[in-house]
């Protein structure tokens, strides 16, 4: 069959159905033509017994063609079931993917909130450190002044 590369299941099934219908019509036309040709030959050459043999042969061919049609119908149904299964699998995979994205989004949001808290704490600690350093500097000046006063009292 001439199925284009990259075609989806619907396109493949449609191509198979169209080809199958063409083959059935071709077989029907050929069977009708064959039946008419054989009947005309047998009528001209043989008696009633020969015509009965031809009818039996045609019945067998018709039966074989019917079997082929049923086989193709079964194959078509099998392909449809496979398509449905693949569509369900795809739907499940998309659903799982969406759930995973939601979960990851929640994790990212939580981590962003934690990062904001840590930044706020670091900024607060930095301000406290600057305040303590300023206080330390002031205390060191006070201690130096106190030592200077003590040194003057001892000198004096």
Mean pLDDT: 89
Using only CA atoms, what is the Rg? 47 Å
Oligomer: single chain
What is the number of E strands?
A: 0
Distance between the termini: 119 Å
Secondary structural class: mainly alpha
Largest sheet: none
- The helix/strand series, from N terminus to C terminus, equals HH
Helix content estimate = over 70%
Q: So what's the overall shape?
A: rod-shaped
Number of helices: 2
Q: Uncertain segments of ≥5 residues (pLDDT<50)?
A: none
Strand proportion: under 5%
Coiled coil: 32-142
Domain IF rod: 1-156
Keywords: Coiled coil, Intermediate filament
Protein name: Phakinin
Describe this structure in words.
- The protein has 156 residues and is mainly α.
- Helix content is 93%, strand content 0%.
- It contains 2 helices and no strands.
- The chain has helices at residues 9-45, 48-155.
- The longest helix is centred in the middle third of the chain and has 108 residues, at 48-155.
- It is rod-shaped, with a radius of gyration of 47 Å.
- 0% of the residues are buried.
- The mean pLDDT is 89.
Question: What's a concise summary of this model?
Answer:
With 156 residues, the protein is mainly α. It has helices spanning 9-45, 48-155. Helix content is 93%, strand content 0%.
